[in-house]
């Protein structure tokens, strides 16, 4: 007969293993980034704003071919009339996948390669990477389009958000190769954008939250179900232990 302590120990191991499965793969990068960010896909208002940002500024070049408009509308509680009026620019069918309007051949001629599909970008690189990337464009006269990116040097993507953020240059410390993570921003503003620095950071955070959601739309439901399963297993373990004690009380 297995000792009671062993039963409880094995049950605890099973619960911890289940918790690890519920949590899923971490959306975090292992390399140093200039900014820190933790996605919050449970913040519905933020993810909704991120969907607006993405469809208005990103979907012209980048598709999300693994996500349908209908799934996005259902998960983010967006009415169909608002979806069609404000978020659907390449299709009038809510069941379609989110595709970009840019022809891949033309994009290859313009940028050297077609813009990548971004459905799984936040899962592959990490939402913190996306956040840092969108904050890290800076003026670089040596580049064909006049800008570079600290997170992805020599990126083909132009700084399409400069009107919102404004233009910035690297601080001297960044040029001298000091630590990649700064207490403040590694950049100095040159021109003011339509948004303040705080407003733009919030704009980027909303966009990164949406991309984290798009990379795994079922995550919130899976986590909710997982916690219910963990609660059931915890209660069941206690009941099983108490039942075992009652059954074996006379034997001991």
UniProtKB/TrEMBL annotation:
Keyword Heme part of the UniProt annotation: yes
Keyword Transmembrane helix: yes
TM regions (residue ranges): 225-243
Keywords, comma-separated and alphabetical: Heme, Iron, Membrane, Metal-binding, Signal, Transmembrane, Transmembrane helix
Primary location group: membrane
Localization in the cell: Membrane
GO MF assignments: electron transfer activity; heme binding; metal ion binding
Residues that hold heme c according to the record: 58, 61-62
UniProt cross-references to InterPro entries, sorted A to Z: Cyt_c-like_dom_sf, Cyt_c1
Cofactor(s) it depends on: heme c
Entries under PANTHER family matching the protein: CYTOCHROME C1, CYTOCHROME C1, HEME PROTEIN, MITOCHONDRIAL
Name this protein carries in UniProt: Ubiquinol-cytochrome c reductase cytochrome c1 subunit
Source lineage: Bacteria, Pseudomonadati, Pseudomonadota, Gammaproteobacteria, Nevskiales
């Amino acid at each position: 007969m297995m000792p009671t302590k062993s039963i409880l120990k094995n049950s605890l191991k099973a619960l911890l293993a289940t918790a690890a499965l519920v949590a899923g793969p971490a959306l975090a990068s292992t390399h140093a980034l200039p900014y820190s960010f933790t996605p919050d896909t449970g913040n519905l208002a933020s993810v909704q704003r991120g969907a607006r940002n993405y469809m208005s500024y990103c979907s012209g070049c980048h598709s999300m071919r693994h996500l349908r408009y209908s799934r996005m509308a259902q998960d983010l509680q967006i009415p169909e009339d608002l979806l069609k009026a404000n978020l659907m620019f390449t299709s009038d069918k809510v069941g379609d996948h989110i595709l970009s309007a840019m022809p891949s051949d033309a994009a290859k001629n313009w940028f050297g390669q077609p813009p990548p599909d971004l459905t799984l970008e936040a899962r592959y690189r990490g939402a913190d990477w996306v956040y840092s990337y969108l904050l890290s464009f800076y003026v670089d006269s040596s580049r064909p389009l006049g800008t570079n990116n600290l997170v992805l040097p020599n990126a083909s993507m132009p700084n399409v958000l400069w009107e919102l953020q404004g233009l910035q240059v690297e601080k001297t410390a960044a040029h001298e190769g000091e630590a990649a993570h700064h207490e403040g921003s590694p950049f100095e503003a040159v021109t003011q954008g339509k948004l303040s620095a705080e407003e733009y950071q919030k704009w980027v955070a909303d966009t990164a939250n949406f991309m984290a959601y798009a990379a795994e739309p079922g995550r919130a439901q899976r986590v909710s179900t997982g916690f219910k399963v963990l609660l059931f297993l915890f209660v069941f373990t206690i009941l099983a232990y108490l039942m075992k004690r009652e059954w074996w009380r006379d034997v001991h």
